Amino acid sequence: MSATFIKEVGIQEGAEAVIETLKSDGVVILKHGMAPSDVAAAAFDLEQYLRRTPTGQGAFYGFNTRRCGALVAKSKHFADLATHSVVLPAVTEILEAHCDCIQLNLTQAIRIEPNESPQFLHRDDELFPLPGERFETMVNALWAISEFSVENGGTRVIPGSHKWPRDREPQANEILQAEMKPGDVLVYLGSVLHGGGANHSPAPRTGAVISYNLGWLKQTENFYLSIPWETARRLPERLQRLIGYQLHRPNVGWVEGRDPLEWLRAGRPEVMAASDALTEDQVKMVGEAMADPARFAAHF
Question: How far apart are CA 138 and CA 152, in angstroms?
């Protein structure tokens, strides 16, 4: 039986309630994730960029939709949201079973203007055509900066579709629309069918996506170009690592063989001494091999 509503949890229920609903439904609305004063400040910060952003040039991104990225560099409020005290632990719990560390996949403001058509339903994890049995590679948090309604293009989503066979076609009666107040956030798995709604209202609908993925995947947004290193070095360490200044064991993402933050803090030297960044199992195996070379003779 198809779901008849998108489940909501309160901010006071914490990350566990978000995780539980994500596992069962693939999508959840976290109520009051941002304080009203923070929503207003974030909206003010976004306005200076969105009003200068042209509408899209493709059916997927929308001919009447404005999008801009690098939000963590454009506004302190979005930098804070990227490390939200409920959303980030929930996302980490979902993704960390398949990676050493998670990272930001993209940060994007989305303003759906009046007369925009509905977006084609899709799964975001189709960006990564991994072979074999699927597992969760991405979790998204869509923050409502303005009110989301059926009339103004509230995001369309199908709860439970993360459990469907990939060739199953959606039915119209299975599609729900996220209705949210400013400050609420729609959290959904990358395997869930969703898409922007049609805006039949006279006013735009504004949201901001902060998306996370496995630390060994390519990021959809190129943060190394969208966020200058001079800006990146002033960000909090947790956020620096989330945008990509981190090593994913074993030895993925290094600069001169070192953790990118070490390189950044050292003044971006041309050369450094390479240093191992191995998993715990690899460290154990190397240690055993060094202690008993005869046993591992075939490896030397």
Answer: 26
Look at the block and give the residue holding tokens 């990227």.
82
- Which tens digits make up the pLDDT trace of 62-90? 999 999 999 999 999 999 999 999 999 99
pLDDT, tens only, 23-56:
999 999 999 999 999 999 999 999 999 999 999 9
Work out the widest C-alpha separation in the chain, in whole angstroms.
Answer: 76
Ranges of H-type helices in 31-169: 36-50, 71-74, 76-82, 87-95
Structure tokens at 26: 């693939």
Task: Quote the CA–CA distance of 157 and 134 in Å, as a whole number.
Answer: 20
CA distances from 194 to 105, 114, 127, 184, 187 (A): 17, 20, 14, 18, 12
- Reference 25, options 49, 58, 52, 2; nearest CA is 2
* Kind of pairing between the strands at 8-10 and 27-31: parallel
Q: What are phi and psi of 258, to 5 degrees?
A: -130, 165
Distances (CA, A) of 35 to 20, 73, 181: 24, 21, 11
Amino acid found at 28? V
pLDDT tens per residue across span 137-178? 999 999 999 999 999 999 999 999 999 999 999 999 999 999
Give CA–CA dist 185/139, Å, rounded: 12
Secondary structure class of 78 (helix, strand, coil):
helix
Rounded CA-CA distance 105/215 in Å is: 9
Cα separation, 19 vs 11, whole angstroms: 13
9 pLDDT more than 80: yes
- Distance of alpha carbon 94 from alpha carbon 90, whole angstroms: 6
CA distance 121 to 181: 23
Give the whole-angstrom CA distance, residue 282 versus residue 90.
Answer: 28
Q: Is the dihedral of CA 187, 189, 192, 194 positive or negative?
A: positive
Write the CB contacts of 267 (distance below 8 Å, at least 6 apart in sequence). Answer: none
Q: Which amino acid is at 181?
A: K
